Amino acid sequence: MSDDILVQQDGSIATVILNRPRLRNAINLAMWAEIARLTEGFVKDDSVRAVVYRGAGTEAFASGADITEFPESRKDVETSQRYNATTAAAYAAVRECVKPTIALIHGFCMGGAMGLAMACDLRFAAEGSKFGIPAARLSIVYPSEAIGQLVDLVGPAYAKDILFSARTVSDREALAIGLIQRLVPPAELERTTYDYLAQVADNAPLSVCGSKVAIQAYRAVFSEEHRARLRALSLEAVASEDYREGTRAFLEKRRPTFRGR
After folding, report:
1. Is residue 93 in some structural domain?
2. Could you tell me what percentage of the chain is helix, strand and coil, using 3-state DSSP and rounding each to the nearest 5?
3. Do residues 74 and 83 touch, judged by C-beta distance below 8 A?
4. Which pLDDT tens digit goes with each residue over 38-57?
5. Residue 193 lies in a domain
6. Domain assignment present for 30
7. Is pLDDT at 158 greater than 60 in this prediction?
8. What total of structural domains would you count in the chain?
């Protein structure tokens, strides 16, 4: 494991730290793979009863996926399929973890980091946090399960608003629409998060696990037909001129010009 991800354990609560503060904790491909591996390990570790995911420092949970890698790691359909499989495994590991998970969010939580945060059971955020999914600025189709989780949290109209506009959502709006469950002053965020999980960890693990599995079963209604259509759209998008333009514009720090092809 590289220093890009750190793991701490205090009693029965494990913490995964995205540790690239100079890059606003942007998540590279190796980190996505490590998130999956670590989370799968927590499931098997009886000493862990809850998991926190957070970014190093207070500027960002994470600014999203590391787009500087995209010219190589997502340069065509084949590499994009491999990349998407790695990120999907990370989201799935967190989403399907039978132990309670919380995203502890300071500052920016954008793009792929939103997918990670939404895969957690709960999101506790500091005042001043900002949220967004700018996939439409890169000609990327966001993963279907992550879109499903967004709809579950905020409803279909707000999900469309956030995805269509690629706008940034403020801390107060995020709380009001259900994207986050706690909003507290920055100095209180850690105490609020870990005190809450200490209370959860004192409860019967089988009861907590049973509740989580029951809720997961209730929402598992995304049909394979929908998933297949979204996979096809995702590959179509990454093979497009617009995807290459979006990536170039991001790296060149300019507004992209999209042509729908």
Report:
1. yes
2. 55, 15, 30
3. yes
4. 999 999 998 999 999 999 99
5. no
6. yes
7. yes
8. 1
